Amino acid sequence: MASRKADWSKRTANKTAGTTVSVADVVTMPTTPDVVWNRLENVPLVASCLPGLDPATLVAVGPNAFSARMTNTVMGISAHWDLSATINPEPDLRVLNVVLKGDDSRLNMKLDGIAVVHVRPDDTGRALLDYTANLRVDGSMAAMGGPVIRSILGDAIAQFVAVVGGQDRVRRSLFARLRERAADWWARVTRKTRTSMATKGTP
Fold it and tell me: 2-173, superfamily in CATH?
């Protein structure tokens, strides 16, 4: 665990002020470590787990490297990321390392993330996913604070766990659904305000 924190500290040492969120957990999977690891070694499958990623834009640029477009919306602010992902499986250790970098030049936003996933058996032979994940956002979305960004990271992890557990779909979290409703409401209010101002300005 110390090495993971050390690696993340090096990556963020020279960053400007922003929001950083870290999560860690151990999840029991309803299948064996062999099955889970076989899915984790499917690098395109892992890459497709990112919430908001447009599957049509997912392109392999190397053996374990991908580029894609990803959209996240928080309280009316939509970030359209030019995303690069490096996903490196270590079969001998059954460890998966994920590095993300994203850029939204329109909003002048940056995304920097790293995750480490370790597959191991529990006492009954079922698979345990032991993971740590860190996500940093600089720019407009960072102002929304840690809780909202944590929910985005949580949705990504939920999707990831569902896919490697063999589920085709994962039910969105309550917070994610509420966040979308709030964003829709804010968009309607903003649109109504702009329309009203335009009407008043018409001679």
Answer: START domain (3.30.530.20)
